[in-house]
Structure to design on (1319 residues):
């Protein structure tokens, strides 16, 4: 049961409404700037918001677009989960044994963190035939260091007094792990998921570079190389919507469930 | 040499061996070996124009990190002090920035600023900024309430509480953010230069690809790894050690 | 000087006080007693304006708590030291927060002085995670004293100290109070401590709390704990506690 | 007989080229020897896939062949994929309608933007500017500044004035004509045809010696089917163009314009094309895009039937 | 039953003990007294195997501390509740950690029972941040009692409680101890408390600490704090404290 702060009804309600208003104002301001920039330019140069909205609606009715969106979403979710699992395991290994700590924190982490996405794309295209596996491989390779860094940070932030409390009740590592460590790590794991989810969408384009000829990244590339600015921006916005959907429906509730403190 | 150091170096050797082996079995246009890359690196260093491109990339990365870090901090603090702005900053601005694809920004930046370093930096910053925003926001949400009350009991000056209590409580988050941004910045910069730049390492990679010059690509990757490793070793690690010191019992 | 009138506080839907009223005059040493969870810490937070009130009024030197903050300092029930500074720097932190920029050297001297006052001259370099419970508490006391406030709120400041250190600390606080004319509100569970230190003892009852007893202590200082007047008071206080208990259990 | 052999084919991501392979993809051209699995890829993807041999047949830029060979990547030409059309349109230098620039010579001291400075198409533009208009087109220290800008950003950069002229190709050029906001100051492809009496080849379909060796028959069949598919598109214009137009959101008239004025897709390989590639390599070497001129001869598949 | 022999502990380069030795027999109630920072909490951690020792030996029921953990429970000096569980669930957590999977309902019942024993029946739903200092301490006591250990280590468990609650808690602990024959090691700064509860009082000196006093208390229970034997002991203990002080100040 999350604790809900009793809010003074009158003031809180008004502030909420003002906040919402301000929020929408930001959106309107953005649209206005965009509209002003696009005004007077041919639509293949920079289309206005209306044209893009129209195209977006059109796309939503297209089978091919929906299939691409689905493929990309599944790839992203899969990659995020695998990367977090992998990053978590590496962070865990680094914290169980100093020998692993050296290997992971001084070699693997900087290596993964610095290896450019395009490098992974090249390697994947050599190692694997083009297709979903290659794309997921590249995305996992790109996301893993971020998960590793974040979860590693979580391990470092663990409250030692609470761990000692746990040890006073049991020496069963799995139990301490499950009831205390994991819960203390949860906010960091969630933020790893959130960050990699964001990055995954941004680099979908690069990972789909290897020649898996479907997915939203591919659609954007297609629109870009045929100078279909309207479609290009419409796909960009569709990504925004899918991202926000996942964020609101999955990540935010999860974060509510595991706050750092009450 | 400690066991840890031994394991670390052993791993390095193992990695190099595996790489050499893999290179042995693939043609040079697919995967060059360590020795070829080292030679290439040497040649690279002797070419002023290439160094210039390296400088351009560094400039893009550094400028974008500084810009988005400062802006991200400022933006994260706004809803902290003026809760009215919460929805505007996080739900609208942050969410949009967080998901709008980098290439989209590149297009818009080109429109707004023309084709130059500024628009490359803008596009990278637009990608980086939400990370700063999200991380700092979670830091601000998790401030130790007891310590905040302690600060309040000593002063009502917001600036002082910010400087002496809030910021130190946020340091781990700020630091993690910086580290994160550093990693993302390289990836984004290369991609931005690869697809839309006319300078920087990404551009070089693009040229090398057209020439099927895989060695150069690996040399560039090598330089990036060396650079990031140095940053990790001489900048991030010492700071991390300081944070760790007072967390230990 | 310090006045609570009909203060009402609600926390998490529970009424802690409905009508709490008491006063503290300038230069007075008031001890606040009461059962665990009755709202002693809460009342200190209310007086310093750290907690908004749902009703009634709080005045400090004829100002609202929000304006009078610079005259107050707290020793909280838990020490609340910051983990990234050692003992000395934690004391300096209080001064930095209160006074802003200033001479670092003179502040370190002052902090040093207060830390030796509380018996920690040898532990100034230790980070909070290396200090024992009583040592942390003493750092917190030094931090509050360092800003030289007119009013000090102390929430069970000596609870983790051994009798000898505690006696020493009591004497120190009493001396500081006598020499500087500060006003002190002191929460404690130790009736003897209250009897030794206080000009007046305010005993709170169970929730929703109100003042059960308001004892003036006129005995001259330094006090002899065995004195007849104090013994009578002690009996009376313990009695009230007990009857309070009886009420609670019915 | 077992299952049919699958030949994977990667071609340039462009709606016009979708029309070329439409007949193959939609079962209008069939074979009982092979199945063709055609995929469209963007230029960077094509480059990568060429080196990693992910496809059996791949469309590649003419300018890339010598570079690949010098790195040890052997490619063999099967047929011509893109050649300049007779009218020589769609490859010009574009400016804004109200630009002060009137002729290529006015470019001196100005900035020209292109989608890729090392590409076959842009090299052809440079050849015309250098040979016909006497401009020094060296990338460093030439008469004008040359900037690489992603294709999609080119019109915007032009509109905004951050570049003075740009090279627009394919559908972009068509849209520029339609919008009426832009005009050309040179039709470089036409100029090249005039000067050299050859239509330049910009892209060819290639495969790898070991793959060709293993099953020459299948690749012969690929060439036949490819040619048949092109022919189908040109003889069933309404059917094919409308279908592709609907999918890409382009005007069906674009395809007519493109196949008539901009590009030929020969689908075979003829002596005349070999000559054109040789000429192009020679001129590229002069410009310094290639290190030295090489003949096209060694890049040809030895079993290739070269038309007159 | 519980034996420390020549234990040496170094923390942060400082020697806390060089040769600390004492024993506790089965079913004994031992109170550990000593000045602040002398290493009382440290000795509890050593006995439970939470802190490695630099020399000497520790045996618990003829086992090493690493093996005997399942027989022990701690009440730490700071309550160490987890912020994401309320009072009830914090008590359940202790049982979950010790016994692994099991009937949730019966554990909640047990937790409920112990929370009412410590007087928190009405506050079971509160999260740690909503509890007063004394309430948190009592949740920690309930958590330790809930796993029904053979040996309980209590580190100033009643320091934040008012006299009446404290008296009640003392009685409860004493009763539990008498009925179950548990062994209890109890750190306190309250000499009277020690005198009332302990079979034996061990008084530690300043760092590097050693046992200063080892007092057997034979008075029958329930004890009358005014009894002559106890008064003598009290005088003696306070005396040792004071002399210790004098040594420290010279
Ligand atoms: N945020 C909150 N929500 C609900 N109840 C709260 C909250 N904060 C405090 N309380 C309750 O208010 C009461 C008074 O708390 P307070 O800390 O003032 O007690 P106290 O008198 O200082 O007790 P102690 O002597 O144990 O420290 C307690 O019963 C506590 O549970
Ligand atoms: N990690 C550490 N590094 C250095 N010194 C430490 C460390 N941990 C504890 N100490 C020191 O060890 C001494 C004993 O600490 P301990 O917590 O056992 O004291 P204590 O007897 O429980 O005191 P108190 O009654 O104040 O709780 C203290 O002086 C403390 O400063
Ligand atoms: Mg309190
Ligand atoms: Mg202690």
């Amino acid at each position: 049961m999350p604790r809900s702060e009793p809010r003074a009804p009158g003031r809180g309600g008004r502030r909420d409404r003002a906040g919402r208003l301000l929020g929408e104002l930001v959106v309107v301001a953005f649209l206005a700037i965009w509209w002003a920039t696009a005004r007077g330019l041919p639509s293949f140069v920079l289309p206005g918001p209306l044209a893009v909205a129209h195209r977006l609606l059109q796309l939503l009715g297209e089978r091919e677009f929906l299939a691409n969106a689905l493929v990309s979403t599944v790839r992203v979710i899969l990659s995020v989960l695998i990367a977090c699992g992998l990053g978590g395991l590496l962070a865990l290994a680094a914290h169980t044994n100093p020998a692993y700590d050296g290997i992971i924190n001084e070699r693997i982490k900087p290596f993964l963190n610095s290896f450019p996405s395009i490098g992974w794309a090249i390697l994947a295209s050599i190692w694997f035939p083009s297709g979903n596996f290659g794309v997921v491989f590249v995305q996992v390779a790109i996301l893993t260091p971020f998960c590793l860094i974040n979860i590693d940070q979580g391990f470092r932030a663990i409250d030692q007094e609470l761990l000692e409390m746990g040890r006073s009740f049991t020496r069963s590592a799995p139990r301490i792990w499950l009831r205390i460590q994991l819960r203390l790590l949860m906010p960091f794991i969630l933020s790893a998921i959130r960050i990699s989810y964001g990055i995954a969408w941004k680099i979908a384009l690069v990972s789909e570079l290897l020649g898996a000829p479907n997915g939203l990244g591919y659609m954007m590339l297609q629109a870009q190389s045929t100078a279909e600015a309207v479609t290009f921006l419409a796909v960009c916005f569709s990504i925004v919507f899918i991202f926000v959907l996942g964020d609101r429906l999955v990540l935010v509730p999860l974060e509510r469930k595991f706050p750092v403190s009450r | 040499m400690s066991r840890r150091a031994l394991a670390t170096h052993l791993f390095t050797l193992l990695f190099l061996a595996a790489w050499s082996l893999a290179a042995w079995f693939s043609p040079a246009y697919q995967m060059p070996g360590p020795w070829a890359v080292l030679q290439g690196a040497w040649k690279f260093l002797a070419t002023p124009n290439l160094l210039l491109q390296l400088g351009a990339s560094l400039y893009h990365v550094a400028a974008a990190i500084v810009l988005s870090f400062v802006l991200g901090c400022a933006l994260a603090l706004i809803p902290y002090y003026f809760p009215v702005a919460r929805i505007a900053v996080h739900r609208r601005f942050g969410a949009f920035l967080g998901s709008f694809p980098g290439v989209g920004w590149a297009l818009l930046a080109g429109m707004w600023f023309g084709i130059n370093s500024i628009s490359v930096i803008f596009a990278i910053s637009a990608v980086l900024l939400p990370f700063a925003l999200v991380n700092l926001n979670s830091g601000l949400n998790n401030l130790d309430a007891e310590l905040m009350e302690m600060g309040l009991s000593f002063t009502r000056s917001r600036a002082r509480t910010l400087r002496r209590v809030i910021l130190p409580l946020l340091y781990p988050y700020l630091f993690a953010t910086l580290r994160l941004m550093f990693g993302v910045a390289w990836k984004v910069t290369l991609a931005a230069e690869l697809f839309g730049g006319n300078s920087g390492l990404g551009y070089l990679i693009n040229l090398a690809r057209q020439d099927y010059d895989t060695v150069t690509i690996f040399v560039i990757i090598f330089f990036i790894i060396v650079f990031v490793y140095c940053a990790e070793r001489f900048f991030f690690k010492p700071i991390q050690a300081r944070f760790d010191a007072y967390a230990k019992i | 000087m310090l006045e609570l009138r009909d203060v009402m506080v609600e926390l998490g839907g529970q009424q802690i006080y409905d009508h709490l009223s008491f006063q503290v005059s300038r230069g007075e040493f008031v001890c606040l007693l009461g059962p665990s969870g009755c709202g002693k810490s809460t009342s200190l937070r209310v007086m310093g304006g750290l907690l908004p009130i749902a009703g009634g009024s709080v005045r400090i030197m004829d100002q609202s708590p929000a304006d009078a903050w610079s005259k107050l300092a707290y020793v909280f029930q838990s020490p609340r030291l910051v983990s990234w500074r050692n003992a000395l720097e934690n004391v300096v932190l209080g001064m930095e927060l209160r006074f802003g920029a200033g001479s670092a050297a003179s502040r370190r001297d002052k902090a040093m002085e207060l830390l030796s006052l509380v018996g920690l001259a040898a532990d100034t370099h230790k980070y909070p995670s290396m200090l024992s419970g009583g040592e942390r508490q003493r750092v917190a006391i030094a931090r509050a004293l360092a800003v030289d406030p007119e009013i000090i709120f102390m929430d069970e400041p000596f609870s983790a100290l051994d009798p000898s250190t505690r006696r020493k600390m009591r004497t120190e606080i009493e001396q500081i109070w006598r020499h500087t004319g500060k006003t002190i509100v002191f929460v404690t569970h130790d009736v003897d401590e209250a009897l030794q230190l206080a000009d007046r003892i305010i005993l709170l009852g169970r929730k929703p709390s109100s003042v059960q007893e308001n004892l003036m202590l006129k005995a001259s200082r330094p006090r002899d704990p065995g004195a007849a007047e104090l013994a009578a008071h002690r009996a009376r206080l313990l009695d009230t506690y007990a009857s309070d208990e009886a009420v609670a259990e019915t | 007989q077992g299952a049919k052999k699958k030949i994977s084919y990667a071609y340039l991501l462009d709606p016009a080229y979708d029309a070329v392979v439409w007949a193959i993809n939609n079962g209008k051209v069939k074979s009982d020897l092979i199945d063709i699995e055609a995929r469209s890829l963007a230029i960077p993807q094509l480059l990568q896939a060429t080196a990693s041999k992910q496809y059996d047949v791949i469309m590649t830029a003419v300018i890339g062949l010598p570079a690949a060979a010098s790195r040890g990547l052997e490619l063999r030409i099967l047929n011509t994929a893109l050649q300049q059309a007779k009218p020589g349109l769609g490859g010009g230098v574009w400016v804004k309608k109200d630009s002060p620039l009137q002729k290529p010579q006015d470019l001196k001291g100005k900035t020209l933007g292109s989608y890729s400075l090392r590409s076959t198409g842009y090299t052809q533009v440079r050849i015309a500017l250098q040979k016909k208009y006497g401009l020094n087109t060296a990338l460093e220290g030439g008469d004008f500044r040359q900037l690489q800008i992603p294709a999609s950003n080119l019109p915007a950069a032009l509109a905004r004035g951050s570049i003075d002229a740009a090279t627009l190709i394919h559908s972009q050029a068509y849209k520029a004509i339609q919008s009426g906001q832009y005009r050309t100051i040179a039709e470089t492809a036409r100029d090249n045809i005039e000067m050299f009496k050859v239509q330049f080849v910009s892209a060819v379909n290639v495969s790898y010696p070991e793959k060709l060796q293993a099953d020459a028959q299948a690749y012969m069949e690929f060439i036949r089917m490819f040619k048949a598919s092109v022919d189908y598109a040109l003889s069933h214009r309404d059917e094919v163009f409308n279908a592709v137009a609907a999918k890409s959101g382009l005007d069906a008239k674009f395809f007519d314009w493109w196949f008539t004025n901009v590009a030929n897709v020969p689908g075979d390989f003829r002596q005349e094309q070999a000559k054109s590639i040789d000429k192009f390599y020679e001129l590229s070497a002069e410009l310094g895009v290639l290190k030295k001129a090489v003949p096209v001869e060694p890049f040809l598949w030895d079993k290739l039937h070269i038309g007159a």
Observations:
- Chain C has a mean pLDDT of 88.
- Chain C touches chain B through 26 residues (CB under 8 Å).
- The CA atoms of residues 16 and 105 of chain C lie 44 Å apart.
- Residues C 132-133; E 40-41, 77, 155 surround magnesium ion (ligand 4) (CB under 6 Å).
